[in-house]
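Long-time lurker. I teach an intro course on protein structure, and each term I like to show students one example going from raw sequence to a predicted 3D structure in token notation. This year I'd like something fresh instead of my usual example. Would anyone be willing to generate the tokens for the chain below so I can use it in lecture? Attribution to the forum is fine with me.
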Amino acid sequence: MNVTLNNPFEQFVKSLVATGRYESEQEVVEAGIASLVLQNLRADGEEIDDPTAAAIERSEEQIASGNTRSLDETIRELRLKHFQR
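-- Reply from a regular --
Happy to contribute to a lecture. Here you go:
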């Protein structure tokens, strides 16, 4: 397989090789593909569907923006919702 990269990507790949972090351009591309594979697999090895991937991305964005709550707060909320009458 031969792949042609657009200039910004080609320059990025070359710069990574130049740092010595990767031995070849092929190694950089393979590392990138391996990263994509890992991003798209669930713990059981099945591929993640688009809605699930989107939900994960939204969650990561919420975490990055500080929109989180503690485990204790979450447990308290779930108990009130499901076990209080």
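Some talking points for your students: The chain has one domain: 7-83. The mean pLDDT is 86.
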